[in-house]
Queue: 4 jobs
Job 1
Amino acid sequence: MSKTKNKILDVSRALFNEFGYSQVTIRMIALKLEMSSGNLNYHFKKREEILEALYFEMVSVFDERIVALPKTELSLLQVKNDIEQSMNRMVVYKFIWTDLFNILRANDKIHTHFYKVHKNRLAGSLFLFNVLCSKAVMKPASFQKEYDVLAEQFINFGNTWIYTSELYHKIYTDTYIKNQVESMLGLLYPYLTQKGLEEFKRIVPNWFDD
């Protein structure tokens, strides 16, 4: 990708994050870049092409991570680190997550990819739970759909934490991200074995401070 295209994407992302995708026009982006709308249209014919480029730029890392999951050495610490990396990347593209419903409804290409990946994420979560069960970190499911439900909860938290954060906080400090990471990881807490609880206490010690 050319330097000009990368610059357009960087400026567009900053404007979308600040004002919201629906409030930013091609003209606003061009003015910020100090170029004509016609020059910008040479690189991206419409605003939706910028949106798609930013979306697929963001999810490329997520998609690679799902593919690599079977070869990853899994532990609660690895899960925690993975959540943290994902959340930090999501903040960089926060406009997508604060307006996800409208973006999915308006853009067929993103909609198709998002729901295809949703199925992969569910499968990836179940794979993770099975591995942690095999390592005696998580308990075996007590009923058939138990971990299916947990996988949905896990993914829903990941999809909506930024939207909720925008309602109340809007300041993504390292401490705030850390708290969100631990909250998401904490969804696994009721399902941990004694071994898993000991590992959890090592990597989230502040939950157990007197």
Job 2
Amino acid sequence: MSRNVLVIEDDKDIARLLDLHLRDEGYSVAVASDGKTGLAQALSKPFDIVILDLILPGMDGLEVCRGIRNRKDYTPILMLTAKSTDVDRIVGLEMGADDYLTKPFNVRELLARVKALFRRVEALRAKDPAAPQRKIESGDLVIDPEKRRVTVQGSPVHVTAREFDLLLEFARHPGRVYTRAQLLDKVWGYSYQGYEHTVNSHINRLREKIEKNPAKPRYILTVRGAGYLFAEPGERETG
């Protein structure tokens, strides 16, 4: 079955390039060149993924992303932008984008990320909906997999979709040491050389949200020269 991809991109050359390569992969592709048209198309029928530029005429990518996220049905969003600052990237992810690429980008990497998002959605759909997923409680931290909610000392903590998946992977395997490459593979669904820093930035943001003192974390610990782990109760109490 062919996947339906919506590309919302005002740069004609980039849109044409994406259209060509996505079709070569066997996907059905629709293209919109401005935000309002793109959002209207995104809401008009189901798409398997939306590739969304951040800077668009008429309505910017953040507004489009917000509009798509207001739908009941979940659609993965891969955001593109010419901006490269951490602030721009974080804002895009906080608004509900699942992944992020800065222009200029490698087309092979973009295709790898698209496939990774498809695998992630398939994995979520493959889970038995009748099988309850228990809450994970660790000190003041509570993770609810079914509602995809995180609370600290009873107060809700807003995390992005990717941050939640990362935290859940850690919390389900306390004491296990993960390398950055392993986390990319398990949480992002791909391992692309040179992008281990993506893991670092997500962990830093998680620490800012769940730790009392991010400089001295109690939950997500750094294992020097190896990677990261989620502290077991004994480690956390003595950390």
Job 3
Amino acid sequence: MKDPLVALRTSLAEQLAALRGVAPDQLPPALLDISVRRVGAAYYVCPSSWEQLRHEEAGAGRPVPYWARPWPSGVGLAGALHDDPPAPGLRVLELGCGLALPSVVAARAGARVLATDGSTDAVAFAAHVLAINEVLGDVAHVDWAEHGDALVARGPFDLVLAADVLYTKANVDAALELFPRLVAPGGVLRIADPNRAGAARFLAELDAETEPGPDVSLHTVRFGGKPAGHT
């Protein structure tokens, strides 16, 4: 019987190579040295050594692969959705999904999920993370800070999710302009943030409700009253 991890690695190699426009043997070795892990109720597949992948990508002049590990904000947002899941059938958009743990939890609750990221590598891994959790969801390569109109055209969404995306002034400015356009009337924006100072202006301008935490705080912005499908 074929090792499931080998089959997973083969599938990832084919998709990653196609998205990068290279042959599979030109991919960084650390990108395909993968493992399957669990956090909370969700499984995820990721490169086994983030530091080695970062080293190999730097040597090739490529960006730091921030998407390739589960950061506290993403884990915290996934946990919040597990405790307060969206209703079945709601349209959910995750921005900068990385390994897409919040999308997995939302899809498991029966929501119609679209997970997006500006990295093609992240999109390939996110698709496989959804698959290994046996949930349905769409993935798309979209950098929300640059191509927000494409997301608006796919919306509006009942629930928009984002974890640790307000780390630069440019991102805050872009988010203030874009995020309200993505949410349907009566919809909700949920953001997890590691208490970055730069997020304060965004949260104040959109009148967010905050659940503070020592490492990660959860913020909710409601558009037009009670959110659809939530208790």
Job 4
Amino acid sequence: MLEVRGLETYHGNIRALREVSIDVPEGKVVAILGANGAGKTTLLKTIAGALSPRAGTISFQGEDIAGVPSHKILRRGVALVPEGRSILSRMTVRENLELGAFVRRDGKVTEDMDRVMGRFPVLRQRQGQLGGSLSGGEQQMLAIARALMSAPKLLLLDEPTLGLAPLVVADIFGIIREINASGTTVLLVEQNVKQAMKVSSYTYVLETGKIVLSGPSAELAREPRIKASYLGPS
């Protein structure tokens, strides 16, 4: 579904991504791991069109989308849930969800609104509340639900459990599994390495903008470098 080849993205004169190549097969969850500053967020933003690469290709369903404006990429079926959620705090929950569907012209928005509310019952209960009045976990659910309202084929999740309580983290990973089981492909950036490798079928590890390790998640979890750097003693 997604093929990234030789991607190079800069922040000013600083090269943040160095010849990054990844594959995200349709129907799978793929994880991107790495320390802070490794380039994970830059990679997702470049795929989503928020940043333009200086070199490389990004092919989504056979079309090169490198450098295409983000709203056009969203219309093609790639939605980003950014780190920090970025919900509109002075708009209601329902208004946030309606905004997520602004690119759609298929006449199924009402149907999908009902489906999303069913998947996130707390949002149905709080649909008239301002987004900023929700708890951190509820805001993260709203951010994911808003992205789902665009009817994405590929969902990019940037640190969806950052700063959340353990019980909420478990809920979020359950939601990721449900989303994937319903047919949406997921590219996941996550610092909860154990859970990310459990939910994903394939993992890439970024260090200083380069892919340094990759492989099936179950196999990579046994890799000494992964265990030493991310998983700790078993």
